[in-house]
Amino acid sequence: MSTNKKFVDIAQQLKPEINKTTVFPKRLIEVVGDKDVFQGWRINNLEEIENLELKSFGKNESFVIDFGDHQVGYINLSIKAVGSPPDAPLRLKLIFGEMPCEIAESFDNYDGRLSRSWLQDELVNIDVLPCEIQLPRRYSFRYLKIIVIDTSKKYKVAFSNIYITSVTSADVSKIEQLEDTIQEDLRVMDNISIKTLRDCMQSVFEDGPKRDRRLWIGDLRLQALANYHTFKNYNLVKRCLYLFGGMTLKSGHIGACVFIEPQPLVDDIYLYDYSLFFVASLYDYYTATNDMDTLDKLWPVALKQLELALERLNEKGIVKDDPSWWCFIDWHNELNKQASAQAVLIYCLKRGLYLAKELKQNKVIDFIKYKIDFVSKAAIEHLWISEKGFFISGENAQISWASQIWMVLAEVFSKNENANLLERLFIDPPAIKMNTPYMYHHFVDALFLCGMKEKALEQMRGYWGEMVKDGADCFWESYNPEDKFFSPYGSNVINSYCHAWSCTPAYFIRKFLR
């Protein structure tokens, strides 16, 4: 890792104040199986939360409470013995769930690809009753299941004063109300988007407060776009940019993500597209703020990402596709990333050109102009198949949604030609589809870019709108309307159900529909 201490110090000086709110649960519930609802689990109301204090629980008994909507914070609860004096420790199991599946399905059966430790459950042993406890770990959840694992035969326990200290760096007072002309379903989408972004805004823009609780640059770019139209916390974006710019990999590449605690540390993951998105993120920040000082300081890091990315071109001007690299684009095991990466490079070169012009760096301007022309012509000559009307990717000439969408965003063709390309996706849809809100964001963005407003709204309603129908109170990390158990990690219980890259309906609504 290469560290610019000055940049990291600037980032640390921008560390935000965390706002705290006390939130109490709303009701007692039960989770029951129902194959006709999302992931097969339905919530039934049982009774008001006030009745909990009238109940007592012994060994192997449990209850589930609902906080009404998604929360991020620290759980507090009071417990007392009922019956004889407690003659053995109380052992509890607490299970936290963003969605009903996490409450209903046994974590003992988990066989996903990510660590079991991300699943939110805790064993707590209590020696002295009565007591008040606050668990030290921050949780991300709506539902809480409490199981009495053991007491003794002589006593039971009762619970009261359960609440969460909710935390975020977002300031909800900055949110402007939407106009009355915005349709109700879009207003619901906007509210859920803002809630998603709010819960991901902590000391940095986290990708997800349940998992991974890190600063990922792909998520940051989309969060920042939504933030500019909602919370307007420009300093939080600035902090994140300085963290990435201040801790690069030895190669000079921007790392894909940054750990925040105990001290900022760049991860050793390098993604071709994510490193380039530092340029796009800096461009978005500058156009939102006109912060020339930050642009001037971070531009050398951004320019370095363009130079490094260009080194991956082959003699034809095409991004080399071999086992030595990793490019994200979307969670899809069959997706070839070459054409999308080519388009991301063009997209970021064009944003780098704008920044170089703002800085009046004439030699750099000429260099980037030449590269844009070279890489764009290469994409058309070697990846565009006119008789098919699509771009291909990889040695097997794969045609995917992602390749076409990213070439539209890169504006390799004219606006009309790009609109025709997007129309062909609806007429002759490629088999390699999109799996995440991250990729759907770029699809909707491409539709708006081409002036296809009604198609863009149709996709928002057909994707995020379907999440709403399936019970989302925050938007999710992954969602396939045709496979509602889809997970890139092999198990839906490990999925993040409040995830940063899914927050952008608010961006689209507030930028394009007002």
Report on this model:
The structure is a single chain. The chain has 514 residues and is an alpha+beta fold. The protein folds into 2 domains: 21-165, Galactose-binding domain-like (Jelly Rolls), CATH 2.60.120.260; 173-512, Glycosyltransferase, CATH 1.50.10.10. The protein has 14 helices and 16 strands. The strands form 4 sheets. Strands 2, 3, 4, 5, 6, 7, 8, 9 and 10 form a 9-stranded antiparallel β-sheet that branches. The chain has a 3-stranded antiparallel β-sheet with strand order 11-13-14. A two-stranded antiparallel sheet has the order 1-12. Strand 13 (257-259) and strand 14 (265-266) form a beta hairpin. Helix 5 runs antiparallel to helix 6, helix 6 (272-289) packs parallel to helix 8 (338-358) and helix 7 runs antiparallel to helix 8. It is globular, with a radius of gyration of 25 Å. Residues 186-510 form the Alpha-L-rhamnosidase six-hairpin glycosidase domain. Residues 25-165 form the Glycosyl hydrolase family 78 alpha-rhamnosidase N-terminal domain. InterPro entries: 6-hairpin_glycosidase_sf, 6hp_glycosidase-like_sf, Bac_rhamnosid6H, Glyco_hydro_78_N. This is Bacterial alpha-L-rhamnosidase. It holds the Pfam family Bac_rhamnosid6H.
